[in-house]
Specification:
Elements: E1 8-13, H1 15-32, E2 38-44, H2 48-57, E3 62-71, E4 83-87, E5 97-105, H3 109-119, E6 125-133, E7 146-150, E8 156-157, E9 173-176
Parallel strand pairs: 2-3, 2-5, 5-6, 6-7
Antiparallel strand pairs: 1-9, 3-4, 8-9
Bound molecules: 1-O-pyrophosphono-5-O-phosphono-alpha-D-ribofuranose (PRP).
């Protein structure tokens, strides 16, 4: 096994724990949407690893599309209340069962905006599935239909989550080393 990178302080969830939990949540999703087709909408970039693993574990037919968001100030990231779609979906969601897929829900601003915006396009249903739910930082309440893990107020990396665009490809979820982290 290779040494942990310097950004890792400690592992919160191992690759095995993440994989196991994704299987469980995928089974819940398959049961809820049984008999239907589901469109997974990934919010770039953080969701890509989670969405890929989730889609492979879901046992009903799925379609996949992506969008990305940014803030009006141009400064990406959580805790900005003003977000907009920077890259829109490729296809219509009218009449579809849509499940937004996120790596983390933090303040809730991003998801509130996306749920409101996409609901206006006439989907049959809208839901939310997130790998991590950091409820301690929530500012606006959003409905979380499926989540793998709730976490405390840690800066986390891995499984799609980054620090300065690095560490997304770690198979586990780790707390970022505070000596490297610039707050
Ligand atoms: C993260 C995450 C969510 C958003 C959650 O994205 O992927 O989209 O922040 O924060 P909120 O609940 O406070 O709105 P980020 O801007 O870090 O982009 P990334 O997915 O490209 O890493």
């Amino acid at each position: 096994m290779s040494a942990q990178p310097p950004g890792v302080e400690r592992i919160l969830f191992t690759e095995e724990q993440v994989s196991q939990r994704i299987q469980e949540v995928a089974a819940e999703i398959s049961a809820k949407y049984r008999g239907r087709e589901l469109k997974l909408v990934g919010v770039l970039k953080g969701s890509i690893f989670f969405l890929t693993a989730l889609a492979r574990a879901i046992e009903i037919p799925v379609k996949i599309d992506f969008l990305s968001i940014s803030s009006f100030s141009g400064k990406k990231g959580p805790s900005s209340g003003l977000v907009r779609i920077a890259k829109d979906l490729d296809e219509s969601i009218e009449g579809e069962d849509v499940l937004l897929v996120e790596d983390i829900v933090d303040t809730g601003f991003t998801i509130r905006y996306l749920l409101q915006t996409l609901a206006g396009r006439g989907p049959n249903s809208m839901g939310l599935c997130t790998l991590l739910d950091r409820t301690s930082r929530r500012i606006v309440q959003v409905p979380v239909d499926f989540r793998c893990f709730e976490i405390g107020d840690h800066f986390v990396i891995g499984c799609g989550l980054d620090y300065k665009q690095l560490y997304r490809n770690l198979g586990y979820i780790a707390v970022m080393n505070p000596q490297i982290l610039e707050r």
